[in-house]
Amino acid sequence: MANILLIDDNIDMQKMLTVVLKRQGHEVASAACGLDGIDLALNHPFNIIVLDVMMPDMNGYEVARRLRSDPRTKDLPIIILTARAQSVDQQAAMEAGADAYLAKPVDIAELNNRIQELTTMGRPKPPAAPTAAARPGAGPLVAAAPVPGPAPVPAAPTLPASGRLFSVLCWRGGVGATTLAVNLAGAFAREGRRVCLIDLSPSSGHAALMLRLRAKPNWTDLPLDLNPQNLGFSLLKHDSGLQMLASPTQPHADGFSAEMFNAVVQLMFSFFTEIVVDCSPVLDAATHAALSASTRIILPLAPDVTAVQTLTGTLGTLAALQVPPDLLRIVLNHPSPNPTLLPARIEKALGRPLDAALPYDPAQAAALLQGTPLVFSQPKSPYIAALVSLLQKL
Amino acid sequence: MTITTERSRVIKHVSGDFFTGAYRMTGRMSVGASGAVGVLNDTNRSFAVLDDVYISYVHTPGSILAHFAQVRISKTGLEALVLTKREEVGPVGVARGGYARLAQYQVLITTDAFEIRGTLEQPGKYDPDNVLFQGTARFFPIYNATTNACIKPDAKYAGEAVLINRGRVSAFCGGE
Prior knowledge:
The structure holds 2 protein chains of 2 kinds.
Chain A: E1 3-7, H1 11-23, E2 27-31, H2 34-43, E3 48-52, H3 60-69, E4 78-82, H4 87-96, E5 100-103, H5 108-121, E6 164-168, H6 177-190, E7 195-199, H7 207-210, H8 228-234, E8 236-237, E9 243-245, H9 258-268, E10 274-278, H10 285-293, E11 296-301, H11 305-320, E12 328-333, H12 343-350, E13 356-358, H13 363-370, H14 374-377, H15 382-393
Parallel strand pairs in A: 1-2, 1-3, 3-4, 4-5, 6-10, 6-11, 7-9, 7-10, 11-12, 12-13
Antiparallel strand pairs in A: 8-9
Helix pairs in contact in A: 2-3, 6-15, 9-10
Chain B: E1 2-6, E2 9-19, E3 23-31, H1 35-40, E4 47-57, E5 66-74, E6 80-83, H2 92-96, E7 102-111, E8 114-123, H3 128-133, E9 139-149, E10 152-165, E11 169-174
Antiparallel strand pairs in B: 1-2, 2-3, 2-6, 3-4, 4-5, 6-10, 7-8, 7-11, 8-9, 9-10
């Protein structure tokens, strides 16, 4: 819940918003003019400011400008709330330094959503232009992609020093890759990290279902003029704090383009420190882009012959794509209680050791049915214990 | 629209953008039961009183030039009033002069400083002369309209209704 400073000269509006926001669990302080508001903002630790534009002594734009120019409040999210509701006013508000703009009469649900969005995600930073300069650890995958398949991928987004992107890649179904991706993202959320899960499946991905979220909006709804605001609207929010970009529930012919994926990831790293990508079951453009931007690539594997064969092919493809082997983590997952291959045989077939093993957990089926991943419903289960151990190795 | 009571009289306030040739004034106007069109077409008063008004130049509509608690605005000098809600125009009988079945016509109307695109609602056939010259009503409504100043055409003001001063109309286009 946020500590909110409300600056509005209209006392009735002030009282009404105070009551409503307090009912939502927020702490609210108010000021009736711009100068008082600035004074309060500079001397008290607020999480966010809700600011009226039309005030007699100093208008809201000027208040926003002054707050942005002071180092103590330059990063404080500001929502402008005004009866001047034309597009020119919205533009003026954004130019003055506001992070969001709402027209009066106030839609309380919308206001509350914006407050939650800005207080949990922080102020959106202006996106840096994507460059080819990769961070240490990223493979030279972009430079040369000798295998036939998807079109050349545009330059990978520049990850911030603290940002990490994990791709969970499996080109065979039934191995538990999506379950692993969802629980991995959930484990980061439980640690209090800002994490976003991206489901790249072009044909009915199930990550949203596993979190009991309706996959609308999804990445097919992303606008071409992507900005922090409309990206925020395209993300699904889970109660745990985990956010996700869902895939469409019906097969989508055009897929998710590499350019759009890179733009999304670039923007996301303004808000999130970890991104987990549940890759598409085919090597499409977005998956290719995800692999090239990955800090680690997790390759889940079931203990059966067909899964080993698929993974062998996957490793060959990744080698051809010049993915550095040190980015790869092979994880033996047990989606059923009766493995047909022992780990030693698998390691021998792959010619390299397994990095982790996740045990079979009978509660997985119920977790899927109820839309509550084990990481939230049974955080002490053996599966989650092994997953947390894997996290340490990432 | 906000409603307050003063003794036994009900006062409604409509908020909107009032445009003269060079200024944008955002404020509230007290109206009676006859709505904004009733106040602006009241031939007994040549000025309208606005409260809590923020003034901008039309060419810099996002910057606030001044604020006044009360402004008297000349109805002759007022070119258009952009209203967010259609019901702020006034009761149906007053706003369109009756309850006849209406036809809708897409129109472009220009004044000295603005162009307004929207829907004209009229009973029967398209008859701009009726709008421009018949009766005593000075302001007429255009619905679902977009207004922009000629000197800053990229700044558009959208509203469910725009009241236009027919004495300032320079061209009335459309209706086919």
